[in-house]
């Protein structure tokens, strides 16, 4: 097991947004959801503070950290509410009932001014909106997914929430994992667990024939030449690549029996596991993913030539998951239960040098870390201080 007590003299020059939550509350998913809070921390683990607290003042509400704008000035904050009676029904029947009793929106928080804008509430198309992202080369355009009649539907909109446009071409199949190519001209997503590629307006959609029943979360390579996604059987799927024209399909790496879902709670509840998907390095030379190694799940990276490197070595039964490379490619943020609680860690990209980034108490968890896309000192932000550290509870 790697020595996490060894000093790390330098730290990545970024802030990290993430989500804290209670992992030990009985009663199903609702107590877990309503305990979630969007947080921010320096890359050395100091200066933790909670974000957008005003969104959690009503009962049965929560926030989670969901991403950044390309310039690092705006944080994406997911804001949720669920009626407790609806949550009890879902837990009893072990299925979602998303057409009533829910409100889920995507907000943009300006860290320098504190201004908060609920962009999915503008010209609202759904009570449940998720997956907000910035069209990578155009910070004035956003993409997201709206649940309409229980069907996830891809949309685009302007930065202020206006001009919402359905990108589904009118079909009624469940669509998930929407993202844009680096030049913004094309989109990719999976629909009914099949990968599709389309023009940016949703037209000319074509299915990628993988020959597999389960295909999940395609992601464009930084140069736009490849799509990375999971393919195979559900719970037995592996990192695969394909060209945007459907050619060059190949399996890149095997997860060796890892089911690819992470249980985030101490008391498992209905649908409390989180998907663990492979991700690109910023320069496109590596893909980071998790795989089973003996009795533990470890972080790995694989080159486009298929060369695999193991990055973590943990004690038996440990889980390492959700890798996220830093913008400069020098570090990897990941979640792990190696210390007994679910924390976030920063690891050098070559696997040498690792330290805990969050220090949550027993019964809590920290997950879904997002590096700020530019160096933290490159723009003005309200200083982090100890006064920004509300008591957990």
- The count of strands amounts to 30
How much helical structure, as a percent, in the residues?
A: under 10%
Gyration radius, rounded: 20 Å
**Could you name the ranges where pLDDT drops below 50 across 5 or more consecutive residues?**
1-7, 385-391
Average predicted local confidence, pLDDT: 92
Report the principal-axis shape. globular
What is the multimeric organization of the chains shown?
single chain
In whole angstroms, the N-to-C terminal distance is 32 Å
- Strand order in the largest sheet: 3-2-1-30
CATH architecture identity? 6 Propeller
Question: Proportion of β residues?
Answer: 35-45%
Q: Can you identify the CATH class? A: Mainly Beta
Supply the number of helical segments: 2
Would you tell me the structural class of the helices and strands?
mainly beta
> What's the main sheet like?
4 strands, antiparallel
**CATH fold descriptor:** Neuraminidase
Question: How many domains would you count in the coordinates?
Answer: 1
* CATH superfamily descriptor: TolB, C-terminal domain
What can you tell me about this protein's structure?
The protein has helices at 29-35, 84-93; strands at 15-22, 37-42, 49-50, 61-68, 74-82, 102-110, 116-118, 129-134, 141-148, 151-158, 165-166, 175-180, 186-191, 194-199, 206-207, 214-220, 227-233, 236-242, 250-253, 261-263, 273-275, 279-280, 286-293, 296-303, 308-310, 320-325, 331-336, 343-348, 354-356, 364-371. It is mainly beta. The chain has a single domain, classed as Neuraminidase, CATH 2.120.10.30. A hairpin with a 5-residue loop joins strand 6 (102-110) and strand 7 (116-118). The two termini are 32 Å apart.
């Amino acid at each position: 097991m790697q020595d996490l007590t060894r000093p790390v003299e330098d730290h990545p020059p970024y802030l990290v947004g993430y989500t804290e939550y209670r992992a030990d509350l009985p009663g199903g998913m609702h107590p877990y959801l309503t305990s979630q809070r969007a947080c921010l921390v320096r890359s050395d683990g100091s200066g933790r503070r909670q974000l957008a607290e005003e969104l959690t003042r009503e009962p049965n509400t929560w926030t989670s950290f969901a991403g950044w704008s390309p310039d690092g000035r705006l944080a994406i904050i997911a804001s949720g509410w669920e009626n407790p009676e609806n949550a009890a029904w879902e837990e009893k029947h072990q299925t979602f009932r998303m057409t009533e009793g829910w409100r889920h929106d995507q907000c943009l928080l300006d860290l320098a001014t504190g201004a908060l804008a609920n962009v999915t509430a503008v010209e609202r198309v759904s009570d449940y909106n998720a997956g907000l992202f910035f069209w990578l080369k155009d910070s004035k355009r956003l993409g997201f997914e709206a649940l309409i009649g229980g069907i996830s539907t891809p949309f685009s909109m302007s930065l202020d929430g206006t001009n919402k446009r359905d990108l589904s071409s009118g079909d009624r199949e469940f669509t998930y994992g929407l993202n844009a190519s680096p030049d913004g001209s094309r989109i990719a997503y999976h629909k009914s667990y099949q990968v599709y590629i389309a023009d940016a307006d949703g037209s000319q959609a074509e299915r990628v024939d993988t020959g597999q029943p389960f295909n999940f979360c395609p992601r464009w390579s930084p140069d736009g030449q490849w799509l990375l996604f999971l393919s195979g059987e559900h719970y037995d799927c592996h990192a695969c690549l394909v060209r945007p024209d459907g050619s060059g399909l190949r399996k890149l790496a095997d997860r060796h029996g890892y089911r690819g879902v992470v249980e985030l709670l101490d008391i498992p509840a209905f649908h409390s596991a989180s998907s663990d998907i492979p991700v690109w390095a910023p320069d496109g030379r590596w893909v980071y993913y998790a795989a089973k190694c003996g009795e533990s799940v470890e972080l790995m990276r694989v080159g486009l030539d298929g060369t695999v490197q193991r990055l973590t070595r943990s004690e038996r039964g440990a889980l390492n998951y959700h890798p996220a490379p830093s913008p400069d490619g020098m570090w990897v943020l990941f979640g792990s239960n190696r210390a007994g609680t679910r924390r976030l860690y920063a690891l050098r990209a070559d696997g040498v040098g690792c330290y805990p980034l969050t220090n949550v108490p027993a019964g809590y968890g920290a997950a879904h870390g997002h590096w700020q896309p530019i160096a933290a000192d490159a723009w003005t932000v309200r200083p982090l201080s100890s006064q920004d550290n509300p008591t957990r509870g």
